[in-house]
């Protein structure tokens, strides 16, 4: 059986996993089959490595993972940072003040740590628990770590729509990107899943035509358009579907497995 792609990049939440963050057996088996046939499976996610590596392990795989929307590329086995884009802290202060004044929950992330200010509400604590994240409570009087790679604001969709609209009117030296209905990420302007995947393909000597990517949200568009075959799951917004070359079933219907068996071999 011939394999059509050398690198297969998979978004995690809303794509590889169900909405309850479960890896279904059919999807797991299809991903393992692709790896067995010789594809390099690269999880390409907005998550940090600490809650991405367990997903990779559940797949029975190891290797390179692209985390924090491309801001940190990690070797999962050694847990070493291969490359990261760090945020300008001075630029970030404006976003932090906006969130404090508007009472929007936010966190700041180094490659391996997620830090929050103050006490967590029940809703926020449940969100972190669902993503299997253990936040570190940060003393607001202390300076921020110098090696931040991502700032994330979390809230109801309507609140995030309002925040996004406000930030769209700002001029600043960072980028903000909607990574889900309830999340907006702020990062280095050059950090993206698409750019990180392009760098990895060049390092491996793999032509983009031999790269397949599957995703579901706006932070996936870069990798969907870079890949020779970009596939959007059925639960993607219309703008993401428009950026993909093919569509597959939803994340609740083993969409990744369906796409791999339809196109990868």
From TrEMBL:
GO terms for molecular function: hydrolase activity. Signal peptide: none annotated. It is an enzyme of class 3 (hydrolase). Its EC number is 3.1.3.-. InterPro entries: Cof (IPR000150), HAD-like_sf (IPR036412), HAD-SF_hydro_IIB (IPR006379), HAD_sf (IPR023214). Keywords: Hydrolase. CDD domains: HAD_Pase. PANTHER family: HAD SUPERFAMILY HYDROLASE-LIKE, TYPE 3, PHOSPHOSERINE PHOSPHATASE. This is Cof-type HAD-IIB family hydrolase. It comes from Paenibacillus mendelii.
């Amino acid at each position: 059986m011939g394999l059509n792609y050398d690198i297969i990049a998979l978004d995690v939440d809303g794509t590889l996993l169900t909405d309850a963050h479960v890896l279904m057996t059919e999807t797991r088996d299809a991903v393992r089959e692709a790896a067995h046939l010789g594809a390099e499976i690269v999880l390409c996610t907005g998550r940090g490595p600490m809650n991405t590596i367990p997903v990779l392990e559940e797949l029975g795989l190891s290797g390179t993972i692209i985390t924090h929307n491309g801001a940190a590329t990690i070797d999962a086995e050694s847990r070493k940072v291969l490359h990261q884009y760090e945020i300008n802290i001075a630029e970030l202060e404006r976003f932090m003040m906006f969130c404090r004044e508007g009472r929007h929950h936010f966190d700041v992330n180094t490659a391996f740590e997620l830090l929050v200010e103050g006490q967590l509400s029940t809703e926020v604590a449940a969100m972190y628990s669902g993503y299997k994240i253990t936040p570190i409570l940060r003393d607001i009087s202390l300076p921020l770590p110098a090696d931040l790679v991502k700032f994330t604001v979390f809230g109801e969709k309507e609140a995030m729509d309002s925040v996004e609209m406000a930030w769209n009117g700002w001029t600043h030296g960072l980028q903000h990107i909607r990574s889900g209905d309830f999340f907006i990420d702020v990062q280095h302007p050059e950090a993206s899943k698409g750019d990180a995947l392009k760098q990895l393909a060049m390092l491996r000597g793999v032509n983009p035509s031999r790269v397949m990517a599957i995703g579901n949200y706006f932070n996936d568009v870069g990798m969907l358009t870079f890949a020779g075959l970009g596939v959007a799951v059925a639960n993607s917004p219309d703008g993401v579907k428009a950026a993909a070359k093919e569509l597959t079933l939803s994340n609740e219907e083993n969409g990744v497995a369906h796409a791999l068996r339809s196109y990868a071999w």
